[in-house]
Amino acid sequence: MAHTPKPAIRGMLIYLAALIALGLVVGAIYTVYGRPADPSERSASEAIPKAPATPN
Questions:
Q1: How far apart are CA 45 and CA 56, in angstroms?
Q2: Integer Cα distance of 27 and 41 in angstroms
């Protein structure tokens, strides 16, 4: 197995850390802005009509 140079390993770790940081930032933005502005608005699970129950 070939020896991996240290700069390559360091670059991969920096890339991984940047992806995690970006995911945290995007997740925080979605949590803050991804909800309805009006709290009285019904959620999607409440708005979708239920199918009638069929006897088996």
A1: 25
A2: 22
- What does pTM read for this prediction? 0.55
Q: How far is CA 54 from CA 2, 21, 48, 49, 51, in A?
A: 64, 49, 18, 15, 9
**Torsion angles phi and psi, residue 5, rounded to 5:** -65, 145
Which residue type is seen at 52? P
> Tens of pLDDT along 12-49?
999 999 999 999 999 888 887 776 566 777 777 777 78
Amino acid at 3: H
The tokens for 24 are: 């945290």
* Angstrom distance (rounded) from CA 12 to CA 19: 11
